[in-house]
Design a protein that fits this description.
This protein has three helices and two strands, in the order H-H-E-E-H. The chain is α+β, with helices and mostly antiparallel strands. Strand 1 (about 60-70) and strand 2 (about 70-75) form a beta hairpin. The longest helix is centred in the C-terminal third of the chain and has 26 residues, at about 75-100. The radius of gyration is 16 Å and the shape is globular. The chain starts with 13 loop residues before the first helix and ends with a helix.
Amino acid sequence: MHYFGMNLLGEISTRIQKAFESGTSPKEWSSTPLTLKEIRELLIEQKGRIRKTFSGILGEPAANVFEFRDKKLKMIGDLFIFTIWHEGLHQGVINGMKRTIK
């Protein structure tokens, strides 16, 4: 897998990529989902990979322009900001689900 908008190889397993592709649902998973422990370990490791891979290049152009609504994201740093915003949407849904369950 290539990092979003860049010509660098990623370290995300095919299993994870397939499970979370756009338009997929956990109802369709044919393999065993990751455990919370596995997810936690991957997220902890991710911090180091992000620092190592992207340190000093956030101001550089991305390999591909990403268009979202009326915006064109052209810089690596812009893609990071978008990604953080997008993950915040997911976190909001998770928080709402937790409140509903309680």
